[in-house]
Design brief:
UvrD-like helicase C-terminal domain-containing protein; 4 domains; 21 helices; six-stranded parallel β-sheet; P-loop_NTPase; 17 strands; 40% helix; Rossmann fold; 14% strand; alpha/beta; nucleotide-binding
Length: 554
């Protein structure tokens, strides 16, 4: 790849380049659409021209959390830089037996309960019980399914940390989050009861001679690799999306030899994975900081729309868009006819959106959602609900009845592989769901490339999965409101909204290039700041040029 840039670097980009050439570790804070990838490519080319301590040219490693972002970087980085995800780097350095565990079957909660003979027990509560845990005579029942949920959550917390071994504190964190209304003494008893099982499970995951697989839990081999204190073969490391790093990733980088330069790159306001233990490296590390605050994706009016959100998140800089480009921010309630993508807050919202458009005769295509797996699950659930055994689905075969499955969904609502589909089947007719998913499967989008525009009318995805993408015309789905206001509240009563919700809203709004339709969110945005939203009654431009494209990451 040529190191020539289409445009000369901006003053901000040049400052970052000059700092990188000095050889010290630093932070590059890049707001949405601010040319982060082109800046990294510029830095990578320059560093690859420098000699390393042995006199040969430097070689680098580009690391990202998201595989699509790493794939894009691989096409743009110079020959001397290897681009991959943290997980793929870890897996490539794991022994064969650990790789084989990915193919092995992990414990289904029901099988785990039977194997370790977990019995339901009751604990005392202060007031109301945790969601999904029925309250009887002032007590909360902790079912076997709920116990397995606590163990899984505790191990997830451990695997995101720099700790060498699982500890009681990881289970204790899970208990406090999942059973906040249980009195402290009983919380401690739950930890004492479940930690030994969590320790056993981890030891089995990491035992070469144990046949238990890890299923689709990629964090197991990542943690196993990190515990070996690996040395990354590179003179410099470009760590992209650093705001989404968890302590385990940061721990690996901080243990690299002192001669290895690490450039942490990201947007602290796009940290949207704190639920899996991510820490905001861009704010936590005491390193020199350089900023990219000029977005090249959209006009200045959209940047101004985002500024009140950034202000709430503590951003001291002014976010700027392209001064000569207009990005329409439309707050009308009418359904526009020129949408390229609808971004939803949740997976359930995305599936509901897909089915609603299907009912209105619009062909919506899910992006970054495995349609085949969705259809397979829906078909098996439908059969099960009619009293017939699931065909061959491994997640359903251990349930004796559909009512037992429904009870499991109440006790184990965190199971995203089953629960959202049960809810969808309860809300929509099976024929509508099956028809929509079958059509989507036949016109599937791969790797962010759209079809010729005739097979579907628009794309539906979630805000989390939209990160790193951009479209000309974006509509924000109304399910965001549930995370800012109490549902059903006539006076729009505000919730105590976490900073992560504001960060996710910022990510969502900044996916648009030409038009952003905010629909039901218009008054929320107006409340956040003095924003002028266009309310447009007529049909908008119906052209479908650039229906979907992969923009610069974040």
């Amino acid at each position: 790849m040529s190191s020539k840039n289409k445009f000369p670097p901006t003053a901000e980009q040049q400052a970052a380049l000059n700092a990188a050439l000095e050889g010290h570790s630093l932070k590059l804070i890049a707001l949405a659409g601010s040319g982060k990838t082109s800046t990294l490519v510029l830095i990578a080319h320059a560093l690859c021209q420098q000699p390393n301590r042995y006199g040969s040219r430097k070689v680098g490693k580009y690391l990202a959390f998201n595989k699509d972002i790493a794939k894009e970087a691989k096409q743009k980085m110079p020959v001397g830089v290897h681009a991959c995800t943290f997980h793929s780097l870890a897996l490539s350095q794991c022994p064969a037996w650990m790789k084989n565990k990915l193919k092995g079957q992990a414990f289904h909660p029901k099988d785990f309960i039977a194997h370790y003979n977990l019995k339901d027990f009751s604990v005392r509560t202060f007031s109301s019980p945790a969601p999904g845990a029925p309250k009887k005579n002032g007590k909360t029942k902790v079912s076997g399914f709920f116990q397995k949920r606590i163990i899984d959550a505790g191990l997830d917390k451990y695997m995101s940390t720099a700790a060498k071994y699982p500890a009681e504190r990881h289970i204790a964190e899970a208990v406090r989050e999942l059973l906040p209304d249980v009195i402290e003494e009983d919380q401690k008893n739950i930890v004492l009861r479940l930690f030994p099982l969590a320790e056993i499970l981890w030891n089995r995951y990491t035992n070469e001679f144990d046949e238990l697989g890890i299923g689709n839990n990629h964090n197991v081999y990542l943690k196993y690799w990190a515990n070996s204190e690996p040395i990354i073969d590179a003179d410099f490391i470009l760590f992209d999306e650093a705001q989404d790093a968890d302590p385990i990733m940061l721990g690996v980088l901080l243990k690299q030899p002192s001669h290895v330069q690490v450039i942490y790159v990201g947007d602290p306001h796009q940290q949207i994975y704190s639920w899996r233990g991510a820490i905001n490296v861009m704010q936590a590390l005491p390193l020199p900081s350089y900023y990219l605050t000029q977005s090249f994706r959209f006009g200045d009016n959209l940047a101004k729309t985002c500024q009140p959100i950034l202000d709430r998140l503590g951003e001291a800089n002014t976010f700027r868009g392209l001064p000569d480009t207009e990005t329409l921010v439309d707050g009308s309630n009418k359904l526009p006819k020129d949408i390229d993508a609808v971004l939803c807050r949740t997976n359930l919202g995305a599936l509901e959106c897909l089915l609603e458009y299907e009912k209105h005769g619009l062909k919506a295509q899910p992006q970054n959602i495995n349609v085949k797996e969705c259809l397979d699950m829906i078909n098996n659930l439908h059969e099960f609900s009619l009293g017939r055994r699931p065909l061959k689905h491994p997640l359903l075969s251990s349930f004796k009845s559909y009512s037992e499955l429904q009870q499991y969904c109440e006790d184990y609502p965190g199971d995203q592989a089953i629960v959202p589909f049960v809810k969808i089947l309860e809300q929509y007719e099976y024929d509508i769901i099956s028809s929509a998913l079958t059509r989507c499967q036949l016109s599937k989008i791969d790797d962010f490339q759209s079809s010729d525009g005739n097979e579907f009318d628009l794309i539906v995805t979630t805000a989390h999965r939209s990160k790193g993408c951009e479209w000309d015309r974006v509509m924000v789905h109304g399910d965001f409101l549930d995370h800012f206001f109490d549902s059903g509240s006539s006076d729009k009563k505000r919730k105590s909204t976490t900073k992560e919700e504001y960060r996710l809203l910022y990510v969502t709004l900044t996916r648009a290039r030409k038009k952003l339709y905010v629909a039901r969110l218009d008054w929320l945005l107006k409340e956040l700041g003095d924003i002028n939203l266009t309310v447009k009654d007529g049909d908008a431009d119906k052209s479908k040029d650039n229906q979907n494209s992969m923009g610069e990451s974040a």
